[in-house]
Structures are given as C-alpha cells and as structure tokens.
Design a protein that fits this description.
- The protein has about 375 residues and is of the alpha/beta class.
- It folds into three domains: about 130 residues, Nitrogenase molybdenum iron protein domain (Rossmann fold); about 100 residues, Rossmann fold; about 110 residues.
- The strands form three sheets. Strands 2-1-3-4 form a four-stranded parallel sheet, sandwiched between helices. Strands 6-5-7-8 form a four-stranded parallel sheet, with helices on both faces.
- The two termini are about 35 Å apart.
C-alpha cells in the first residue's frame, strides 16, 4: 500500500499514448476494452478530439467475452468497420483485463490482416503503464511498417522532430514554436512525429540529416532511424533563449559528425546542501528546462523523475521516488518546485511553487496556464512566486 497514491492523480496510460501518437495518421486504433471507456482516451486525454476526426475505437468488451474468450467478435467487428472506413492501417492494444487474461493480440492481428489485407500491428500495452511507453512503441511500430527505404538524404540541413504529442506539449502552440525555431536556424523540417505532419512526410523520415527527440517517446524511434538510416539524433527541447541556441548548434554538430548527443543531460547538478529548484515533468522536457534556467538565469536545478512517469532518460543523480510520500519529502527540501498544479497539494506552503501544467497528468484542467517556453524568454519565476 505504500506505493498507492492518497492525494495525487496518475499519468495517462500506455493505451492513451498509443491513441495520441497515431491520432493524425489515418489509421484505426482499436483498444480492447469495455464499452464507455473511449471517453477516457479521447475526450479526457486527447485535446484534438473536438477539432479533428480520428478513428479511435473501443472493442466493447463484455464480462462474458472476457471470461469465455470470444475473440471472434473482436475480429468480425474490426473487419466490418475497416471495410466501411478504409483506414490506412489498424493498431490493436489492450486494456488491463485482456492483458491480465493473456489475450493473444498477435494472433488476432494476424487473422485481421489476412481478412482485410491491411497493415495490422498489435502494440504491447496493459492499461497500467505510463503513456510514454505506449506512445514510444506505437511510433516505433508505425515507422517499421511505413518508413520508406527508397529515400535520399537531403542536401540542405534537415531534421525530423520525434515524440511530439499533446500529452506533453498540449495544443498551446509549443510544437509549432519548435518547428518555427528550427526553420529560422536554417533547418528544413522533414516531418514532426506525430503532430502536424502527413503520413507521406513521416514515411520520408530517412531523408533527414539529423533527428531531434523532444520527449522520451521519441527516443526509441530516434535509435531505430539511426540504426536503419545512420541518422544521428539529439535529445532536447529548445526552451528559453540560450539553451535553444545551444541545442541548434548541437543539432548542426550531430548532422556534421554523425554523433548522437543527449543534449538535455548536459547540465550541472546542484550541491546536495543547496535548496535548489526542482523540476518535475516529462524527462526530456524537464532536463531541457534545467538547461534553460542554467543558460538564461545561471541557476542550477534538479530533475525529479518519479517511477510512475517511467523515466527513459535521466542522470544518475536525479532522484526517482517510488511513492507519493518520498516525493513529498523531496518537495519539502526544494528551493522552488516547478510542477503540474496537481502536485501543489503535497508541496509545503513555505516552498515557492511554479505552475508547469502537464496534460498527461492533469488533462485540460490547467490548459490556459500552459505557456509556450520554446525559443523565447522564460519568465523570471523568482518575481512571480
């Protein structure tokens, strides 16, 4: 029970990560789950649901189907729907119950593939892991199926943006600001995975000279493109002024040398005795914000990488608390806490708090507070706390 949360919410699930990553790509995402659960993955976790159509469906799993194993119903429903809607592909993933009972989505996917003649890829989810894991595996599966081999590297400086979803970057213009900054720095943006780019642009990802992983769910794709096309990658988000410029320089260096650079980890760790600021957000974003504070304010900060956020990228010194109580202890020792407003409930009143909304944690509750920090001056938090 020590690892149970008494106060805090949980992050979006791996199934939500799958739906979000594949949202704009013209496929059909089928989550094997009970009727009525679709609103969890769409209206609550997906801010594009009200402006953009996408084929995200629930299998309407019943108790009898689960106990007796009526997989034929799922196959028939998916095949009938695919015939009516003609999706570009079908992605299958599982909620907790089919994952617990061992539903064989690989076999189901193979049967659907034979009957529909469409690309079908099951994605390993259980509805209990963090959204980063599901989004990461969904992007990797998509690239394995659709990334073209017959592309040539562009002659001009070019880049793919990997791991951009509204779960980490909301719909406040941050992804667009990153794209604009890269273009101003002389890069041609081949694709943005997966927000604002067409399937055709993503299929040509191998033409880019370098990749920029802006979140943890883009790291596996970055490594895949490096192994398949030899495209180097850099991990980081161009936040602030100084760090954004530094990141652009590192992208150009990676394109020239072929070296992979974990840019956001090139930050100093404060002295343990200092009451330094702490930042809790998705790992690449949080580390990049640390770099930005160091570049623009000469302030060193710590990153907290909680276990429930499934940290993919962290320094050895970054604390990774396993439960709410340990997290509260870390907050109590901090000079300032940068985190989603939901965390304020376990931050002592005498510790300054800076709101850093994270859509994968608090949904749309604080969307209006979510500021664009990419390639622009970061507000001086010391004057607003």
């Amino acid at each position: 029970m020590k690892h149970a949360s008494r106060i805090l919410s949980v992050y979006s699930s791996d199934t939500a990560g799958v739906a979000s990553m594949l949202y704009e790509l013209g496929g059909m995402t089928v989550i094997h789950d009970a009727s009525g659960c679709n609103s969890t993955y769409t209206t609550h976790d997906e801010p594009r649901w009200y402006q953009m159509d996408s084929m995200v469906y629930i299998s309407a799993l019943t108790e009898n189907d689960m106990i007796l194993g009526n997989d034929e119903k799922l196959v028939k429903d998916v095949c009938r729907t695919a015939k009516e809607l003609s999706p570009a592909f079908i992605a299958l993933c599982a909620s907790p119950m089919p994952a617990m009972t061992g539903t064989d989505l690989n076999a189901i996917g193979e049967e659907i593939r034979e009957k529909t003649l469409l690309p079908v890829f099951p994605i390993r989810t259980n509805g209990m892991d963090c959204y980063l894991k599901g989004a990461s595996e969904a992007l990797l599966a998509y690239l394995e199926h659709f990334c073209r081999e017959d592309v040539q590297k562009t002659r001009e400086l070019s880049v793919n943006i990997l791991g951009a979803t509204p779960l980490d970057f909301s719909v406040n213009g941050t992804v667009e600001a990153v794209r604009k900054f890269l273009m101003e720095e002389g890069f041609r943006v081949v694709s943005c995975m997966c927000k604002g780019s067409s399937p055709g642009e993503i299929a040509s990802a191998g033409a880019a000279q370098v990749n920029l992983a802006v979140s943890s769910c883009g790291l596996a794709a970055a490594e895949y493109l490096w192994k398949r096309f030899g495209t180097p990658f850099v991990a980081g988000v161009p936040l602030g002024i100084g760090y954004a410029k530094r990141l652009a320089g590192e992208l150009k260096k990676a394109a020239e040398t072929g070296e992979n650079l974990y840019s956001c980890l090139r930050r100093h760790v404060p002295d343990e005795r200092a009451k330094a600021p702490v930042i809790l957000h998705e790992g690449v974003f949080a580390s990049s914000l640390c770099c930005a504070l160091e570049e623009d304010f000469h302030t060193e900060a710590n990153v907290i990488a909680p276990k429930m956020l499934t940290p993919f990228l962290r320094k050895e010194e970054d604390p990774s608390p396993e439960c709410e109580d340990l997290l509260a202890e870390l907050f109590a020792k901090a000079g300032t806490v940068f985190a989603d407003p939901f965390y304020k409930a376990i931050v002592p009143e005498d510790v300054p708090f800076v709101s850093l909304p994270h859509e994968a944690f608090s949904g749309r509750c604080f969307r209006r507070e979510n500021k664009v920090l990419a390639a622009r001056k970061i507000p001086d938090w010391r004057k607003i706390c």
